[in-house]
Amino acid sequence: MNDCPTSSSRRQFLNAASVLGAGIVIAPGITLHGISDAKAGTTAVTSKVRWGLLVDANKCTVDCTACVSACKTEHGLEGHGRIKTDPQWIRKVELRDKGSGRTQSLPVMCQHCDEPPCVDVCPTGASFKRADGIVLVDKHTCIGCRYCMMACPYKARSFVHEVTTGQKSYSPRGKGTVESCTFCVHRVDAGRQPACVEACHKDGKGAMTFGDLKDPNSDISKKLVAHGGVRIRGDLGLDPGVRYQGV
């Protein structure tokens, strides 16, 4: 379908609605310039890199929640507001083979798809994919419609119902917006590992490997060549950046 003459005015209206209509509340002194600047391409982001995460399910145990705890601490997701259940950008899922009865535990988060459906359905462009493959939400333009939540086959996004407390300057959150795993983009841009990966090796079982999927010499690429990797719902053709071994 060709763009209609009113597409520009419609986008202006939706952008305005993101501030006036969605009830977005960002803590004083917290801005989203870091994420919006990345979207505009003013930071050192390049398509020569595609960040990915590999999880070895054989090393991930049911009793280990190091990655979940690290994510909550890193992004200030713990114990806020009246809602008793804290948001989970990463959650542990238990799989059970009906035939053998064998169980496995693995973390599931935003899969940072190469063809993200959340981006396709977003009416304001708030959901976007950086050149390096990281999928993010610009909360300045998110109007809280939650289309992206319905489109995500991994149930990886959540809606912020309340004013948040304990916000981090590098990971702002806002009432009336949608959020999900960011691959700890603030760490990645500084040359560091995501908090979940760091915790997995420090306090967990060392099941996670993060790196550049386009670099044949990266640890993640070498492990994928040696042992392969499975994409959750690979049949959908979304090409997730998160891969699993031993599943």
Quickly describe the structure.
The protein is α+β, with helices and mostly antiparallel strands. The chain has eight helices and nine strands.
Proportion of helical residues: 25-40%
Mean pLDDT across the residues is: 85
Order of helices and strands: HHEHEEHEEHEEHHEHE
Overall radius of gyration: 18 Å
pLDDT below 50 for ≥5 consecutive residues: which ranges? 1-37
Q: Mind summarizing the main beta sheet?
A: 3 strands, mixed
Domain count: the total is 1
Query: Under CATH, the topology is which?
Result: Alpha-Beta Plaits
Compute the number of helices.
8
Count the E strands. 9
Structural class: alpha+beta
Strand fraction: 15-25%
Cα separation of the termini: 41 Å
CATH architecture designation = 2-Layer Sandwich
Strand order of the main beta sheet, please?
8-1-9
- Shape type: globular
Could you walk me through the main structural features you see in this protein, from its secondary elements to its overall organization?
The chain has 247 residues and is of the alpha+beta class. The protein has one domain: Alpha-Beta Plaits (2-Layer Sandwich). 26% of the residues lie in helices and 16% in strands. The chain has eight helices and nine strands. The chain has helices spanning 7-20, 33-40, 66-75, 117-121, 147-151, 185-188, 195-202, 219-227, and strands at residues 51-56, 90-96, 103-109, 127-129, 135-137, 158-159, 178-179, 208-212, 242-245. The strands form four sheets. A three-stranded mixed β-sheet has the order 8-1-9. Strands 2-3 form a two-stranded antiparallel sheet. Strands 4-5 form a two-stranded antiparallel sheet. Helix 3 (66-75) crosses helix 7 (195-202). 38% of the residues are buried.
